[in-house]
Design goal:
Its cofactor is pyridoxal 5'-phosphate. InterPro entries: Cys_synth (IPR005856), Cys_Synth/Cystath_Beta-Synth (IPR050214), CysM (IPR005858), P-phosphate_BS (IPR001216), TrpB-like_PALP (IPR001926), TrpB-like_PALP_sf (IPR036052). This is Cysteine synthase. Pathway: Amino-acid biosynthesis; L-cysteine biosynthesis; L-cysteine from L-serine: step 2/2. It contains eight helices and ten strands. With 294 residues, the protein is an alpha/beta fold. The strands form two sheets. A six-stranded mixed sheet has the order 1-2-10-7-8-9. Helix 6 links the parallel strand 7 and strand 8. The longest helix is centred in the middle third of the chain and has 18 residues. It is globular and about 55 Å long. The N and C termini lie far apart (45 Å).
Length: 294
Amino acid sequence: MSSILDLIGNTPLVEAQQMNKNKNVKLFFKLEGNNPGGSVKDRPAYNMIKSAVERGDIDKNTKLIEATSGNTGIALALIANLYNLNIELVMPENSTKERVQTMRAYGAKVTLTSSDRGIEGARDYAENKVANEGFVGLNQFANDDNWKAHYKTTGPEIWRDTNQKVTHFVSSMGTTGTIMGTSTFLKEKNSAIQIVGVQPTDDSRIPGIRKWPQEYLPKIFNPKKVDQVIEVSEDEARAMTKRLAKEEGIFAGMSSGGATAAALKLIETLDEGIVVSIVCDRGDRYLSSDLFEE
């Protein structure tokens, strides 16, 4: 008998049918919305909790807390409850109601902080509770179990499912766990594989993709593991998210649209190759936002 946790990972890799116009390049989407919690964040959430429990760092008496923009929080709420752990999740108050309701449905306490300070304000709130009120933070931004989840699962799956032929990996950068862990694995297999990170332009707000101020830069981030960074505007990400649904049948969030926009920009510069782009989550947790409005 398997548990819901056994369904984390081994997500499908599907080839673009309409969007890729370069006949010498294959573009594949890795569908992370097929994880049970609906996003790529199931992987690090599971690894962070499982590893901390196995080390004896946390138990059912621990007061866990984590700042999140959404997907990590949903994954942590799901997994913490299955491990009988108490967790408080901290988010900016302008987060979509689907996110808040999903976390609460899984049994987590959700605290909303001022939207003016964004995720940085949520991080400060959580860190203050850790420093002064006896809480324990998983701290996805500095936790090696975050990127190691992708080293153990995402990278090997891409290597396997492309028959060891992947040439380029494209990923949005938030906590940077996905790109750090996948890069580490793929570069060990073939140092010529190009790792492409996606960031928003300076005037853009794209949920799930960040250009962090220096003092908030994730400690797990190593710029040497990223060969190229492609910037994407909010308008580009929005338009590409809608195109993903209409042209490829892939219903996803805006960070996935941003990664797709970057992947298509990349493909225009290539003579040949096999490109894998991460589709981080599903679009249904954005329906209360204006993302899919015409």
